[in-house]
Amino acid sequence: MQRQLKTTLWTVAIALAGLLGAAACDLDVPDLNNPGLDQLAENPTPSRVSAACTGLLIGTRAGTSAPNGFVSQLGILGRESYNFDGADPRYVNEMLEGPLQPGSPFGGAFWAGPYANIRLANIVLTATASLPDFDDSQKAAIRGFTNTVVALDLLRVIVTRDTIGAVIDTDREIDDIGPIADKSAVYAEINALLDDAADDLADGSDAFPFLLSSGFAGFDTPATFIQVNRALRARVAVYEEDYDGALDALEASFLDPAGSFNLGAYHVFTTGTGDVQNGLVNPNIYAHPSFETDAQTNGDTIDARFSSKVARVPQEEAGTAGGLSSDLVFTAYTPTASVPIIRNEELILLRAEAEWGNGDLASAIADLNIVRVGSGGLEPLADGLDAAAVEEEILYNRRYSLMFEGGHRWIDMKRFGRTEPCSGDTTNCLPLDLPDHVINLRYPLPTAECDGRPGEAVCTADPTAL
Question: Who has greater pLDDT, 100 or 34?
Fold first, then answer.
């Protein structure tokens, strides 16, 4: 992980304190500030390691659902949402007019938090290895869980930084800065972490020696958590166009074409003392109008994925800022609503994309129809569509199925090379709402990180170009 100099070390220390001091996702968690990281590293005990494992869940959840968090920011970049917060014009003038700024809480986001969590994970792994109190199967279970979380954190870093890359040499002293690895090396590291974790989970004990939140109901033992691990591995394989690898991982995941689309793993939020609520209910957040104009219909009925997640408000309640407006709001979230990490509907669409990538268009169409009919209430696609038409349907159905869940639209547009603004009547693209807007394609390295890397080219990369 990046090891920053004094100003950045303070940021990481604060981030670590925050994720160790928060209450965890509907769990009865011991005081994770007592003992602290130093005691965990220098005098590990089973209870300290178990508490820290629960803390890893808090850390990987951090920054997900805040009004300025991962779902919201990537939603703005992917033209899924607006935030019309009159007190902070950067939601428009930085996110949409651009470019993203390395010194702001927008362009500088999603770096220190994930790496702080990875630092905690490294301490957990070292502490676990030294404890005779855990048997080999319990240690394997902890390693499998911990490395899955590290992979998830690294994935958040690389999908935001993209071709800038990220740090993967993380097991260093706090003042020793690791090099920036390129995008392909980062994905290779994520794959290795997930695969090693799957092996460890397969050798793991019957139960984890720590608590998981209710967001992992059905996946809260090493033998079942491996299905979440494989689901994440399939997502990464599809991102890398490794379609055979994706299909193999999906076979070992919780993919169920006949099951609930909402089966999956989730970040949980509560109103409990010390916990955090889901901030995506913020009244300044509105849905992008293109969700309605681009939605397909079945007769006079609009795509059910739109109507179940978005509602119109009276004009006097419409949001406006920076020459933009919307009278559409998201209805999918409440203060205690969970945010998906990965769920069955995405897995079916990942399989469709892998089948399309391998030229098996008939199977891809069949999987797309499971989702578009079952979730969208639309007519099934006709047989015999060519590869280009199936590609459009993959993007359309991912857009509406995964709407405002985790930046999927922004990530997909980049994956499929749809980085030019919309023109004409095309819809699988990113629109420019106003002529002076730009499309930010990657986050810069934060200023504090670059303070420890004077002169490195990655610190001057253009956020609007890949």
Answer: 100
Between residues 23 and 143, which one has the greater pLDDT?
143
Going by C-beta distance under 8 Å and a sequence separation of 6 or more, which residues neighbour residue 39? 48
- Collapsing DSSP to helix, strand or coil, 293 comes out as helix
432: closest CA among 316, 329, 322? 322
Q: Number of helices (H) and strands (E), helices first, in the chain? A: 17, 12
Given a contact cutoff of 8 angstroms between Cβ atoms, the answer to whether 20 and 120 are in contact is yes
* pLDDT above 60 for 109: yes
CATH number assigned to the domain comprising residue 172: 1.25.40.390
Rounded to whole angstroms, the Cα distance separating 249 from 35 reads: 38
> What SS3 string covers 208-252?
CCCCCCHHHCCCCCHHHHHHHHHHHHHHHHHHCCCHHHHHHHHHC
Amino acid 171: pLDDT: 84
Distance CA 276, CA 298 (A): 39
Say whether the peptide bond before residue 99 is cis (omega within 30 degrees of 0).
yes
Query: pLDDT tens digit string along 315-365?
Result: 999 999 999 999 999 999 999 999 999 999 999 999 999 999 999 999 999
DSSP 164: G
Q: Which domain holds residue 122?
A: 6-280+334-356
- Element containing residue 342 per DSSP (H, E): strand 339-343
Is 145 domain-assigned?
yes
In angstroms, rounded to a whole number, what is the distance separating the alpha carbons of residues 124 and 195? 19
- For residue 179, tell me if it sits in a domain: yes
- Strands 310-312 and 328-330 come out as antiparallel
325 in a structural domain:
no
Is residue 425 in some structural domain? Answer: no
Domains held by the chain: number: 1
Q: What is the mean predicted confidence (pLDDT) over 168-186?
A: 91
For residues 231-258, average pLDDT: 98
